[in-house]
Amino acid sequence: MKKIILLAHDPGGYDALFSVVERMQQESVPLEFYCIGPAAKLNPSNAVSESRVVQEIQSMLLEKKMSGLVTGTSWGNRLELKAIAACKEVQIPTISILDYWSNYQARFKDDLGKFIYPDTYIVMDELAAQEARQEGVPSNILKVLGHPGLDKYILQRKKTMFFGNKKKLLFLSQPLSALYGQELGYTEQQVLEDCLLAVQGNDDYSLSVKFHPKDDPNWKGRYTDISEDGALLDIMTEYDLIIGMNTMGLLHAVLMGIPAISYQPNLQKPDLCITNKLGFTRLIKSYQELEFLLNTPKGEDRKNICLPKSFIWLDGHSTDRVVGCIKEVLLDEH
Fold first, then answer.
1. Which terminal Cβ of the chain has fewer Cβ within 10 Å, N or C?
2. To the nearest 10°, the Cα dihedral for 205, 223, 156, 73?
């Protein structure tokens, strides 16, 4: 029996793939789900080494037991691209699912500067499709189907739509300095220190931090007393305000009805924060503005957003569409 291989490396790619895998398993679609790198830490039961993935894919291709490949879109790892290239050599169809509105083309650039595109590139909405085309992604591979990783946040939208009395704040870290150095004009280390300074001496606030799996472990070790562990979906419901830079977690918060702000002090590059792009939050670029917001009893940036209906992924059925596409492309003719 031929199987579909699903492969995730980055946490974002894993988030986009996991609900798809669950649905396909429920529908008894023959598949293998491999998690490597940070994704392996999120899902130890599906964790494998990179060498094992290479061996399994090569074996399945050789024995003609593979009906297709579905990947996330990762940074700093090229195994997904190598898997796509191997499948394309023997005309096995490939699909990649985008997890964030940025770097649409660069995700598919190998170490030699060559672009290795999947046969189908699933993006979340027309904004992503337009920006991908502008970056040079071929139009014919783009398919707008939503974002499977957002469905659970939309379905878990909070009933309470106001800034609570507890004033518990959660900072969502990202390893931006590893990607950009000082080029953004700020680092995650600086932003966390700013947040701590802004609430220092204020008994009305408590600040916790949710570190990213790729954050520097030595840096994380300095903040174990305020570090929050667990699944973000469960954690965020305990907080009154989410603070981030350009993390997908800000969108998760907004979708759940939790107030959020994007703090990127002295930003020197184009703003990649999707909640700012969509008008759900606005860019906070100075410490003074952050401090003012946190000390304004009814600051505008804390109000909950009435979500528009113009984005396909807001209906909570992205997983349905993506699974339907995978079955159509990878199973119907193979």
1. N
2. 140
CATH fold of 3-153+314-330: Rossmann fold (3.40.50)
**Taking the model in full, what pTM does it have?**
0.81
The yes-or-no verdict on residue 302 having pLDDT over 50 is: no
**Helix, strand, coil shares, percent, the chain, to 5:** 40, 15, 40
207: buried, middle or exposed (CB in 10 Å: 19+, 13-18, 0-12)?
A: buried
Architecture of the domain whose range is 162-302: 3-Layer(aba) Sandwich (3.40)
Contact assessment for residue 258 and residue 235, using Cβ atoms and an 8 Å cutoff:
no
Please, how many CA atoms are within 13 Å of residue 109, restricted to the half-sphere of its CB?
A: 12
Kindly report the backbone phi and psi dihedral angles of residue 216, in degrees, each rounded to the nearest multiple of 5, phi listed first.
-60, 120
Angstrom distances, CA of residue 13 to CA of 161, 283, 325, 328: 30, 25, 17, 21
The SS3 assignment for 284 reads: strand
